[in-house]
Amino acid sequence: MSDLHDLCRFISRPVTNQYITQLKAYLKSGIPSTYTVEEAYNYTNGIEEEPTTTTTPLHIICQNIPTNGTEEELLVVSEMISVLFEYGAGWSFTDINNETPGCILIKRNMKDSVAFNQIVEAGVRAELILRKVNDNIEFIEASDEEEVPELVESEEQTENAQEDISQIKGNTLEVDPQSTNLDPAEHQETYLNTKLQYKDDALVTSNKDGVMMSWEHNLMQMGCNSLFKNREDDPEEEMVVLNIGFGMGIIDTMIQDKKPFKHYICEPHPDVLEKLKKDGWYQKPNVVILEGRWQDKVAELLSEGVFFNGIYYDTYSEHYSDMLELFDLIVGLLKPQGIFSFFNGLGADRQVIYEVYKKLVEIDLSNYGLQISFTDINLPTLEVWDDIKRSYWNCPVYYHPEVKFVDL
Ligand SMILES: C[S@@+](CC[C@H](N)C(=O)[O-])C[C@H]1O[C@@H](n2cnc3c(N)ncnc32)[C@H](O)[C@@H]1O
């Protein structure tokens, strides 16, 4: 522990403006806002090794915000958090318990606090900056002999960007452009060449990653109901719907039960297409199968004058950046009153990241003239991961999304 870390423990009460003054003094003197307890320990004990965990001042504050704090004290705490962020504190560093500052607040039942909100907002800002940084990466043309691309980005951008890479049902939120990891959960080409196996309650890859699991049944029902909302306004409406990603066919079976006029299914994986054939989906008169990735097949529909009352998106081994590209197509394919929905697993392996992505997706959709609303669904603790390589769901509440054009 250093003096900075001690300050963040609020040992002396009340917590007055003096705390802010002292914090600023430390930071101005050159102590980094991200100075960790581990670094302080190693420094004191002459250990040269780089620590692997990062318990930052923000962690300590979150661990010590007084539960009996007065309004004035909590204002001071909130100002201290703002100051730390101004000086470059990170929202997603993890401590020895693999917890971010936001995780600590959740554990302390402080998810509704101002501090938690500040952390989520910092996360949204960091993700937006990270995207800019990635956009600004330039690949310097390699000479004939030397084919290694060089990354160019400003130092400040690199410092401010957060490194968070989070798995969601095989979808990473961001792709590491230099990654050579050919994990099927991360790389679509590898995934499409990976054998899949249908089990009773799951569709899994040969390396035991869960592509789809039957615990999502109710979430699929919510998704299906959203796609048919237009029918509530006009029972005579000839419903044309599109589902991207067949998986176990759970939502597609529900869609069929609602007897749509036309039901498009987009799916690229050969083993899943085989299943579609075996189960007679090709014979259904109102079903159109688009064999291939949505990036190719759904984009083609733009020139064919097909418009949808409902579009659902639930793929595997894709990234949030893919979803951003999909939004380009959604605005072109959705009827004016149409509804777009998706499996909302964005960042769902860590609750605070789930909250960050809830806000981020809202911001991104608003850039397209689309508005999103969420219905909260409480989920029990899932005990379904025994035979699955990694869990992609770790949150107590599912935010079911419904997206439509903004009302003008
Ligand atoms: C999570 S499952 C879908 C589950 C489905 N919602 C259900 O109710 O069973 C994901 C599916 O998306 C498919 N997929 C992956 N990438 C895709 C892409 N680029 N375009 C279309 N489908 C894709 C996968 O092959 C897989 O069948």
UniProtKB/TrEMBL annotation:
It is an enzyme of class 2 (transferase). Transmembrane segments: none annotated. InterPro entries: Arginine_N-MeTrfase_2, RMT2/GAMT_Mtase, RMT2_dom, SAM-dependent_MTases_sf. GO terms for cellular component: cytoplasm; nucleus. It comes from the Eukaryota. Residues 182-408 form the RMT2 domain. It is found in: Cytoplasm; Nucleus. Keywords: Cytoplasm, Methyltransferase, Nucleus, S-adenosyl-L-methionine, Transferase. GO terms for molecular function: protein arginine N5-methyltransferase activity. Its EC number is 2.1.1.-. GO terms for biological process: methylation. SUPFAM superfamilies: S-adenosyl-L-methionine-dependent methyltransferases. PANTHER family: GUANIDINOACETATE N-METHYLTRANSFERASE (PTHR32379:SF1). Monomer. S-adenosyl-L-methionine-dependent protein-arginine N-methyltransferase that methylates the delta-nitrogen atom of arginine residues to form N5-methylarginine (type IV) in target proteins. Monomethylates ribosomal protein L12. Belongs to the class I-like SAM-binding methyltransferase superfamily. RMT2 methyltransferase family. This is Arginine N-methyltransferase 2. The lineage of its organism: Eukaryota, Fungi, Dikarya, Ascomycota, Saccharomycotina.
